[in-house]
Design a protein that fits this description.
Blueprint: H1 14-20, H2 23-26, H3 30-46, H4 52-70, H5 83-95, H6 108-144, E1 149-154, E2 157-163, H7 164-189, H8 208-214, H9 224-229, H10 232-258, E3 266-267, H11 286-309, H12 323-347, E4 349-350, H13 352-361, H14 366-375, H15 380-397, H16 406-412, H17 420-423, H18 426-431, H19 441-456
Antiparallel strand pairs: 1-2, 3-4
Length: about 450
């Protein structure tokens, strides 16, 4: 069944029909299509455009179709052009002529725009819940690791000592911003296009605000041409998903490095690892690697959608049908990656001794040794050079700064005294950094309380 065949005198070529059809993918939003139709018909009945009898019959028929699809009694048939024609044809088949009034005062253009908005809105809610779950997992790790010392890195070189709580806190901030972006998109997109018609509204006395209210929108869109040709919200969501995936990919890369034989900072649970078909000793971080790989897939959806939309004049054009497969795949990919990554993180254990030893052996306390000299009256530039000599001495003797004897310290600078050992202990180096946002315990405790409040609200 086609919704537009009246002015045509011959059948569409089968290849053209298959190329044009969208039911293979837009059947994904059958729930939203039926929900939108119920709201539309409810409004038509309220406005007296449809009789109470027809309104009741159509709504009951649509609910029955929804139940039958959900229960597997009714299968969506690919012989129809799209989900809209499938639902309408099934309705007419079941309730007769009343079903033919379903489309009164509506175009397929505003119907498609509505369905996609409803679907995207539902997806944003699901994705937000998954990001929140990840944040809760990160927060738990932070609370449990306030005293788990490890090296902080710049350029993949050990830089200064931090805690695992502080490192995880960086990702908490990233994913918190991601939730903010999702919220912003939801707020901006939550206006109803239903009633915009093909591009110029309709002569029927629709109550668009009532339709919007029924569907949980803040109100009706204010320009019918923009309403049917707007895909900004999808582009924004693809951008937000790309950022989420970028954050997941960065996190995955670190876990892959931490899982390596050279680091051995983490143990990934067997449920989230695989082995080698030839090397029995291997335990591979496949989930982290796949998340890292699938990031490009989501990026591709963003670039494809931007490219599709860049040359489209007002109002609706068939090019815009290309928004669905790309967006559906990106949403599914992001949701799958978030769920699996969270599961991997929840079950992962940390080798705390290896982390602390790595911090001690990587001269991460060198800056604090320089600060010690500055606090004893040595100009910073001179202190920098002195500590450089300390590091050279340690490297030539294969020891760390805290393993040097006081005599060795004094041979390089007589300013050093016994208290240098306390000044460069990893715990001291971390805990004396107490400004908000720093890794010191007192600062981190405040951040954790703020995080808890954020998650609660």
């Amino acid at each position: 069944m086609k919704l537009w065949g009246g002015r045509f005198t011959k059948e569409t070529d089968e290849l053209v029909n298959n190329f044009n059809a969208s039911i293979s993918f837009d059947k994904k939003f059958y729930k939203q299509d039926i929900r939108g139709s119920i709201a539309h018909v409810t409004m038509l009945g309220k406005q007296g455009i449809l009789s109470a009898e027809d309104t009741k019959a159509i709504i009951e028929g649509l609910n029955d179709i929804l139940d039958d699809i959900n229960n597997g009694v009714l299968e969506i048939n690919d012989k129809y052009e799209d989900i809209h024609s499938f639902v309408e044809a099934t309705l007419i088949e079941r309730i007769g002529d009343a079903g033919k009034r379903l489309h009164t005062g509506r175009s397929r253009n505003d119907q498609v725009a509505l369905d996609m908005k409803l679907f995207t809105r539902d997806e944003i809610t699901e994705i937000d819940a998954l990001v929140k779950k990840l944040l809760e997992t990160i927060e738990t790790i932070m609370e449990e690791n306030l005293d788990t010392y490890m090296p902080g890195f710049t350029h993949l070189q050990k830089a200064q000592p931090i805690t695992l709580a502080h490192h995880m806190g960086a990702y908490f901030e990233m994913f918190k911003r991601d939730r903010g972006r999702l919220h912003d998109i939801y707020e901006r997109m939550n206006y109803c296009p239903l009633g915009s018609g093909a591009l110029a509204g309709t002569t029927y006395p629709l109550n668009r605000e009532y339709s919007a209210e029924l569907l949980g929108f803040y109100g009706a869109t204010l320009n019918s041409m923009d309403s049917v040709s707007d895909r900004d919200y999808l582009i924004e969501l693809m951008s937000a998903l790309s950022t989420i995936m970028m954050h997941l990919s960065r996190f995955s890369e670190e876990i892959i490095i931490w899982n390596s034989n050279e680091y051995r900072f983490v143990n990934i649970d067997d449920a989230y690892s695989t082995g080698s078909s030839i090397m029995p000793q291997k335990k591979n971080p496949d989930i982290a690697e796949l998340v890292r790989g699938k990031t490009g897939r989501v990026y591709g959806a963003l670039i494809s959608l931007l490219t599709t939309m860049k040359g489209i004049p007002l109002a609706y054009n068939k090019d815009m049908q290309e928004d669905k497969e790309l967006s559906f795949d990106a949403m599914d990919t992001a949701k799958g990656c978030l769920a699996l990554f969270t599961g991997m993180l929840e079950t992962m254990t940390f080798n705390k001794e290896n982390m602390e030893a790595s911090a001690a052996n990587g001269f991460t306390n060198a800056t604090d040794a320089a600060d010690y000299l500055v606090n004893h009256g040595v100009p910073f530039r001179d202190a920098h050079g002195i500590v450089g000599q300390l590091v050279l001495h340690c490297e030539s003797h294969n020891i760390s700064l805290d393993q040097m004897t006081l005599e060795d310290y004094k041979a390089i600078s007589p300013v050093f005294e016994e208290d240098i050992y306390d000044a460069i202990s990893i715990k001291t180096c971390v805990d004396k950094r107490e400004t908000i946002g720093a890794p010191g315990r007192s600062a981190m405790e405040k951040v954790i309380e703020a995080n808890k409040e954020y998650l609660k609200n």
